[in-house]
């Protein structure tokens, strides 16, 4: 019987991309985290897991207004919460990838997220949406999400 091979990957900003996107005043914006790392041990490994950490202070959009605002107390509050983390709680093998469930911690607030880590011809890709208000991001200045979209898409691309 052949041995099943599983993927064990160590990734960071040098060999993958972690981005985010949303809308501000009806205009789309996107950015990346310049400093982050993750370790993925994928099924059929018995100890399948994904652990990721990213420096929220490294968020970069290329727009000086956004880049100066994101670290502030109302948004990422990097002085008090410099890192965000993701820890998987389950990973299931699916047809074209993996169904991942885990806990995302931002601003010391934990929320469950689910996403599909899609296997590509070369690498992997995942997108999932978070409710920024559930993490108290921009809650003081835009509590009704009138200016900045409530839903922010987090994306991961591994080459």
Features:
Lipid/polyisoprenoid-bd_YceI, TTHA0802/YceI-like_sf, elongated, mainly beta, 53% strand, 159 residues, YceI family protein
- State the shape: elongated
- Adjacency order of strands in the biggest sheet: 1-4-5-7-8-9-10-11-2-3-6
Give the C-level CATH assignment: Mainly Beta
Count of helical regions: 1
- Quantity of strands, as a count: 11
What is the level-2 CATH architecture name?
Answer: Beta Barrel
> Could you give a short account of the major beta sheet?
11 strands, antiparallel
Task: Round the mean pLDDT to the nearest integer and report it.
Answer: 94
| Total domain count | 1
**Portion in helices:** under 10%
Secondary-structure content class: mainly beta
| First-last Cα distance | 31 Å
Order of helices and strands: EEEEEEHEEEEE
For the record, what is the CATH homologous superfamily label?
A: Lipid/polyisoprenoid-binding, YceI-like
Low-confidence stretches: none
Cα radius of gyration in angstroms = 16 Å
The percentage of residues in β strands lies in over 45%
Q: Which topology does CATH recognise?
A: Lipocalin
Question: How is the secondary structure organized here?
Answer:
Layout: E1 8-12, E2 16-24, E3 27-33, E4 36-41, E5 49-55, E6 59-60, H1 64-69, E7 83-94, E8 97-106, E9 109-119, E10 124-131, E11 151-158
Antiparallel strand pairs: 1-4, 2-3, 2-11, 3-6, 4-5, 5-7, 7-8, 8-9, 9-10, 10-11
Protein name: YceI family protein
Pfam family, one: YceI
InterPro entries: Lipid/polyisoprenoid-bd_YceI, TTHA0802/YceI-like_sf
């Amino acid at each position: 019987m052949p041995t099943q091979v599983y993927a064990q990957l160590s990734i960071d900003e040098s060999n993958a991309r972690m981005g985010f996107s949303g809308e501000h005043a009806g205009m789309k914006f996107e950015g990346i985290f310049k400093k982050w790392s993750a370790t993925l041990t994928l099924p059929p490994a018995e100890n399948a897991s994904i652990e990721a950490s990213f420096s929220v202070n490294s968020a970069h959009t290329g727009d000086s207004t956004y880049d100066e605002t994101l670290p502030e107390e109302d948004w990422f509050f990097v002085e008090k919460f410099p890192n965000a983390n993701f820890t998987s709680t389950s990973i299931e093998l699916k047809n074209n990838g993996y169904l991942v469930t885990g806990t995302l911690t931002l601003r010391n607030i934990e929320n469950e997220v689910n996403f599909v880590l899609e296997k590509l011809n070369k690498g992997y890709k995942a997108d999932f949406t978070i409710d920024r208000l559930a993490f108290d991001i921009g809650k003081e200045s835009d509590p009704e999400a009138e200016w900045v979209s409530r839903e922010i898409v987090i994306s991961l691309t591994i080459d």
